[in-house]
Amino acid sequence: MEKKEILSKFSSDPERYYKVRLFEEEGFNRKSCGICKRFFWTLDENRINCPDHSDDTYSFIGNPPTNKRFDYTQAWKEVESFFKKNGHTSVNRYPVVCRWRDDLYFTIASIVDFQRVMGSKVVFEFPANPLVVPQTCLRFKDLENVGVTGRHFSSFCMIGQHSIPNENGYWKDECVNLDFNLLTQQFGIGKKEITFVEDVWEGGGSFGSSLEYFVRGLELGNAVFTEFQGDLSNYKTLDQRIIDMGAGLERFAWITMGTPTAYDCCFGPITKKLIQDSGIDADSTILTPYFTEIAKNLELYDDLAMVRKNTIKSTGLSEEQIEKIITPLEGIYLIIDHIRTLIFAISDGALPSNVGGGYNLRIMLRRIISTMNRLKLEFDLNEIIDIQIDYLKNTYSELEKTREDVKEIISIETRRYDSSKQRMQKIVSKLDKEPNVEDLIRLYESNGVTPEYLKEMKVISEIPSTFYAKLSDLHQSKKQKEQTSLPLEGIPDTELLFYGDDPREFHAKVLKTFENFIVLDKTAFYARGGGQEPDHGKIGECEIIDITKYGNIIVHEIKGKMPKNGDTVSCIVDAKRRDGITKNHTSTHIINTSARSVLGSWVWQHSAFKEEDHARLDITHHSALTDNDVTKIEQTANLIIEKSIPVKIENFDRGTAEQKYGFRIYQGGVVPVKSVRIVSIGDLDIEACGGTHVANTSDIEAIKITKTKRIQDGVVRIEFVSGDNAKEFVRKKQQDSENKEIEEKLKEEEKEKRIEKRQLAKERIPIIAKSLSECKDGISIIENITIELRETGKANFCYSTSNDYDDIFHIGLGEVLCKADPKLVYCGLFEDREKIRVIVFAGDDIPKESGAGEIVKSISQILGGAGGGNPKFAQGGGINKSKKEDAIKNAKTMIFE
Ligand SMILES: [Zn+2]
Ligand SMILES: [Zn+2]
Known about the structure:
Elements: H1 3-11, H2 14-17, H3 21-26, E1 29-32, E2 39-42, H4 72-85, E3 89-90, E4 115-118, E5 121-124, E6 131-138, E7 155-163, H5 172-186, E8 194-203, E9 206-215, E10 218-231, E11 234-248, H6 249-257, H7 263-266, H8 270-277, H9 284-300, H10 304-315, H11 319-347, H12 358-375, H13 381-392, H14 403-429, H15 437-447, H16 451-456, H17 467-474, E12 495-496, E13 505-514, E14 517-520, E15 522-523, E16 537-539, E17 542-550, E18 553-559, E19 568-573, H18 575-599, E20 605-610, E21 615-620, H19 627-642, E22 647-653, H20 654-661, E23 675-681, E24 685-688, E25 703-712, E26 715-722, H21 723-773, E27 778-782, E28 785-789, E29 796-800, H22 807-820, E30 824-832, E31 835-842, H23 852-862, E32 866-869, E33 873-878, H24 884-896
Helix pairs in contact: 4-6, 8-11, 9-10, 11-12, 11-13, 11-14, 12-14, 13-14, 18-19, 21-22, 23-24
């Protein structure tokens, strides 16, 4: 179904689809644009074309149509007070990170706040009716326009005016009336200035008419009346009709201020400050015509470079004016816009990374840094953040709480980018041609090289206009998991005993069996879900292998003889396993909240896994955890256990739970049911969770983190054990460390002993050597050392087999003696624990055949071992302690014969 077809059908019956009471009462004329033929409603009899094709387009720049001047903060206060006066509830903005939708990373429109996906259907849940909300929306498709066009933002405030027509809410007539009065009464815009253009909206199987309202070519808002479902030939009215009016707050401010760009009146004092700091001569006589032309050309050309080129030509600005004024201004607008978006996103728990929605945030920060480098602007990002939050908190007071967190994340990311520059430089230097869009995407996706960096390095002159749209598509929505279908038609929902008395033994009726699957009328076996592993146990004689939930039906996969349909079976839950899993599940909640309090507000559960004897929690965090982080998280977690906090489980209507506790409840992801089960540990941790939990934190007894690891950019895994497993882990670790301590102690003693011996040897060797040198012919024994001197022989022999001496001593003495007597062979034998060792020195005159190496080889053999060395020095040994004398005898033979 084409939008064009719907529009032509609706516009062919304006009485039915577009004519509201206001048009009748005020006497609006319906006209068709002389250029594009679109239909519009106006009080200005001279107006002949639609707002896109009128001469007064963007003439409010430099000449606003109101006497009142409202900046961004004040504009919201005006809008809010008007709608409150008219019976609306003003709702706080929802997070920009869209935790309640699986298919969106970020909140892209105010209506998204109230959409919940149930199966394949989108339902609306309004906390009040009618309501108005200042919803910050993030959109990354037009990034290259930001800063350049004067009106594109990466995040903006959508004024959401929403109503369900019933006893409280209203429909078209009232809606258009309110919007008209808002513009004329509250903002003081002349009635003739306002044009309503006929349009339609369709999406998700429903559609309806819409009226866009413009003032001087600027679209201020679009009132969508979601009314029908079906297709054009056959459609019916929805049970729940919805008014979805979205208006850009930035534009409301801009139209009253008439500044050259919307940026000049929407960012607060920071814009003026940065312009002044960088010394730009922001002369409005240049800027007003320039940005008016930009706005007009934007309607004429698709390509931004063309828009800019033609604007420069028609305004006659010099190259110097472009370079000194326009280009740096564009940079400043971009920097401020991007930081504002990062403030919202980081405050709401998103982290820059290379995956998912985090990707968009990283590229924004890199654009900020590249822009500063390219334009040689030296701004203090922390100061910009401070000034922006000071301004934004007039509308969004919650941003104060995360001020320091935002600064921390941005400074970490900035450092990371700086350190990756060298690598990027290398990659860029290898480029042999100017990269096209596909190359740019590949360069960014696989190497982290941003097009801004390439622009900064002058590799490319412009970023292709399709780059961000293409990239954004790649990172837009998350993939949906698909579940295989099973033959379960007609089977009633399973009664879930684990949410009730949770018995360990029960009887149930078999409703259906197929293959090795079985469905019971009720079950106490917990099915795999929310990262919690399934229960084990017995159904009749069968062992349970796996349990899965399909919608509200629980399917058990079993092994063994299958019972028959209609049988009553007795079932036994493996209680020990369940107990372990349950402790681990409550522990993930405790570790999650502990990690958040230790690390920062950006910590969210990324995923979790709970088995009987171990579990893990993956959290969002920018860096790997330090030992200190781990210790602190563990201490915080164990403190929560020590405090014996009751774990409370309550069921709430989803909308009520969201309003009461906020979106922090969605740690485990989206809850696709109307009633949510809220598990709270005091007010420390409150989560929507379908898992099994202990009654009191003290039941867990202990939590021990066993390992942590950075598993992907922005995600850290924490592995842990709890209960008996934690105690066992601690005991083992303690034992290990005790054993290690004993070992260390022994080693230390050994070391000391050796030092002592070395010292002793050093003192004793000269004395003994002196005594030995004084010996005359024949055999002498001094201090257990035997010396045999043969005056006429070819060699002398000195040896010891005493265990009083060790290697240090023998090496010392042998060397001294052999130096003094070149005919001497020295041989030291000593026991060393289980072994016997031998050390031999030989003087210079001893021939190689009877030198140290040969003697050691021969002796070691006798001792039942091996050894070797050179003719002067050798060592070896064996295990036969009883062969000492044989060894000496053998040595003597070698020396003297
Ligand atoms: Zn037109
Ligand atoms: Zn949970």
